[in-house]
Amino acid sequence: MPKRFGFWFIAGISLLSIPLIYFVGSTTVNVLSALISQQESIPFDTGIYYCLLITVFWLFLLIESLGKTNIIQRHKDKLSLIIIGWFIATVLMAFFIPRYISQQLEAAGYTACTDPREVSRVTPGKKLIYERNECQK
Q: How far is CA 130 from CA 68, 91, 99, in A?
């Protein structure tokens, strides 16, 4: 196995995670824009925020890139706390962001309806459609 395989593996995962994080951010912006424009129906998937967990690899890549520099050597005893803290922060964001958005939608008078196109789900969260009036059958 090549000497720098771990670095390139983490770099590849970090690079692939950029479009995924962009998707999460753009979906959030789209939902909030739809809320501001008072659309009749707003689709919202609460499970996509768990994709934020992949950003932990960005921290691994940063640590791997800096390697044996003075910054890493001076703070190597704190690195595990930083990694665990980042992981906990992303889990908390994945839990609280969809709840905050759902509260905003419900406060604006929308009703949460299950998406009839959803068959089954392996990931956490729910695929919902927020309707301005009652749920359509």
A: 51, 24, 13
